[in-house]
Here is the input.
Amino acid sequence: MHAFFLLLLGVSVGAAVYAGASAGRGVLLWLLMVAAVGVREMARAMAAAWEGMELRSILLLPTGGLLTLGTAAANETASTAKTRWRMAAVGPIANFGCGLVLAGLMLSLTPGLELWGHPWLTPTRLLRSAVWVNVLLGAVNLLPAAPLDGGRVLRGVLARSRGVMQGARTAAALGQVLAIGLVVGGVSSGSVWLTVLGVLMMFGPQVESDSLLLDSDVDAVTMRDVMLRNFNTISASETLEGALENAVHSLQDVFPVVRGGNVVGAVSRQGIVEALRAEGNGYVQGVMTRTLATARPEDSLVKTLRRMMGATGVQMVPVVEGERVVGIITPQNLAHSMRMLNQRRRLRRPER
Here is the structure.
């Protein structure tokens, strides 16, 4: 469950207090939202099983969820146009269906229920909200913005006509325009829910991008597959001003520090700037991180990351063959490398 749910909980409780209801009603409204997401993702999980796709995990977001598949075969199946359309349709259908069933039950048991009254989503009318939270979640996912279902379909369609990279950029740009429009509309109309939806859509693509690390058969990914091969080093005896000059002409954020051809540490661009501001000019060896865990090109990426989970202050992983550094992994380049690796795999597979 993503931390965005905490934001949603705060908004729900705040809306309840503002409406003169108890904070408990705000929590109940939040639970209805969580339940609606649960209905959607249970349906998508069953659809994935029906398609023969093995699931590794599901990251729940207030607007839905991100499925992480467990095998390369599952990812290959999910990338086909037919499966993409089916998986995109399952979530909204499940929520619309759940909303209709709840509406029928509640109108049968409570004939006086004002189902069409406004606001549709409010902590003071939980029965009505239970219906509309499902209907609205289904409708929201039809919008063409990632990581919503409509956005995923649009991205696939654009990828076939414009290419993977251009299609992804176009879909992301359209999603951001829609998100900004929702925020502006929510603020101007005083709708807190519309504003929150716009904010979630604004940050949704980044969350989806970060999850790509798990969106492939990562157990088979090695350090060689994702390491940065073209990189600059800085000498331990270099002055901080000299190191900053080198950093200006490089896109790297973290640099291996070498002495006599051996890697002895790492230093970041930000670390150099902070040291210059605090203490003035000095030497790189005085500010570098000395604790480094190296990896070999054939090492598993997942196993290397797990081995380093407990380490503190890790800025970079040198990839070595013998005593020679042949690549580096930094937090900044890892997500980018994983995205490119997944895109390359998709391009090599024929569209079905």
Observations:
- The first strand starts at residue 55 and ends at 61.
